[in-house]
């Protein structure tokens, strides 16, 4: 028996499609690389379908859904009493299959779709002509509201945050039902990726004691601030962002942007936080980046009666709260946009922090509340 080759990575397939679109033929690529010409042509066709250029071909998402329905059909044939996709009384599964047939009947014959999915054409046509049930009508209304929330969240919310949004509106619905309706509507939240670190340590800088020791709990506002720096790529070079986050509410209380990594950028972020919050005895925790160990930064902390704290070198867990915020920023803003210049990036980051993250974006650590709503709910006005 021959050895089966592992599937080609998605990145490899995408690169082959790009080479084809740059002028290479499938035959030329097959001679130079391992895949056959037929395989490469299939990848090209699938890429065109995924981008909406081939309405006669199922997209990757639709193929995944078809495979899921086939698996469900096989399971029900094994465990159920009937021989179709849906067991007797399993009307919800039936609706999903018939809805899939309805969505694709313009591209494929109904009889073929029904045969593949294990349902009868007569059952499908009966489903199309009968009036919708109360449950179906409720699902239609809920799906539209879920779409609105997903759009309002800048297409970032997944099931947990959409469920929390609906609960705040007084809609009693299970998380599983939200997940099902989102899947049927083709709605998905964004997923995080790992962040590239930008910390540069200065061995001559003034490193202070770690007063936090990875315990980021705070009993009140302005008890513990967490600070760090990240970068935003633009066509005109990197834009650097320094933030100060209140550990109690996860609110970004100070931020600054610059085209350089000098100490001024972290000083500007600290000064914004001081001007907004007027703390009496706050710990400012950061990594050992040269900006935070600089003499000017230490003097400003002393002048403002801020207690500096620094984690160890090269350990993201020592500054996990900022790492979490930057991962959110990267996933929900940076990875989904391309900025032509630093002015565009500045406006986008400002809008993300002040118009979205602080006032509206739900945070799992805050019981699915936004930083500002958490502050209003749990603390007297500052």
How is the secondary structure organized here?
Elements: H1 10-21, H2 26-32, H3 37-50, H4 60-79, H5 91-104, H6 110-117, H7 121-129, H8 134-152, H9 159-168, H10 175-185, E1 224-234, E2 237-246, E3 252-258, H11 263-277, E4 283-286, H12 290-293, H13 295-303, E5 307-310, H14 320-332, H15 342-357, H16 371-378
Parallel strand pairs: 1-4, 4-5
Antiparallel strand pairs: 1-2, 2-3
Description:
The protein is an alpha/beta fold. It is 49% helix and 9% strand. It contains 16 helices and 5 strands. The chain has helices at residues 10-21, 26-32, 37-50, 60-79, 91-104, 110-117, 121-129, 134-152, 159-168, 175-185, 263-277, 290-293, 295-303, 320-332, 342-357, 371-378, and strands at residues 224-234, 237-246, 252-258, 283-286, 307-310. A hairpin with a 2-residue loop joins strand 1 and strand 2. Helix 5 (91-104) runs antiparallel to helix 6 (110-117) and helix 9 (159-168) crosses helix 10 (175-185). The chain is globular. The N and C termini lie far apart (73 Å).
């Amino acid at each position: 028996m021959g050895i089966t080759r592992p599937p080609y990575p998605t990145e490899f397939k995408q690169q082959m499609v790009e080479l084809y679109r740059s002028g290479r033929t499938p035959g030329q690529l097959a001679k130079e690389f391992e895949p056959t010409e037929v395989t490469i042509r299939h990848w090209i066709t699938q890429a065109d379908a995924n981008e909406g250029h081939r309405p006669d071909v199922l997209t990757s998402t639709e193929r995944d859904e078809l495979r899921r329905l086939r698996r469900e059909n096989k399971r029900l044939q094994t465990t159920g009493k009937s021989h179709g996709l849906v067991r007797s009384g399993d009307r919800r599964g039936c609706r999903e299959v018939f809805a899939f047939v309805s969505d694709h009947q313009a591209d494929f014959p109904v009889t073929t779709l029904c045969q593949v999915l294990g349902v009868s054409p007569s059952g499908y046509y009966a489903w199309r002509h009968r009036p919708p049930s109360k449950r179906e009508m409720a699902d239609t209304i809920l799906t539209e509201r879920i779409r609105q929330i997903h759009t309002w969240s800048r297409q970032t919310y997944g099931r947990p945050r959409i469920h929390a949004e609906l609960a705040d509106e007084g809609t009693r619905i299970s998380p599983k039902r939200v997940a099902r309706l989102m899947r049927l509507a083709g709605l998905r939240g964004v997923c995080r990726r790992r962040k590239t670190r930008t910390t540069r340590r200065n061995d001559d800088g003034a490193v202070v004691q770690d007063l936090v020791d990875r315990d980021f709990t705070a009993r009140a506002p302005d008890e513990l601030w967490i600070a760090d720096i990240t970068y935003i790529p633009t066509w005109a070079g990197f834009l650097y962002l320094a933030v100060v986050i209140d550990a109690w509410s996860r609110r970004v209380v100070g931020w600054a942007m610059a085209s350089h990594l000098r100490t001024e950028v972290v000083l500007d972020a600290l000064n914004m936080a001081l001007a907004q919050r007027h703390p009496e005895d706050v710990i400012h925790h950061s990594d050992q980046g040269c900006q935070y160990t600089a003499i000017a930064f230490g003097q400003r902390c002393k002048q403002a009666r801020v207690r500096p704290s620094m984690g160890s070198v090269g350990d993201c867990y020592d500054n996990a709260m900022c790492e979490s915020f930057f991962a959110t920023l990267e996933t929900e803003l940076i990875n989904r946009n391309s900025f032509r210049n630093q002015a565009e990036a500045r406006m986008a980051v400002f809008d993300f922090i002040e118009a979205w993250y602080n006032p509206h974006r739900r945070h799992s650590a805050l019981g699915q509340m936004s930083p500002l709503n958490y502050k209003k709910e749990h603390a007297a006005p500052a």
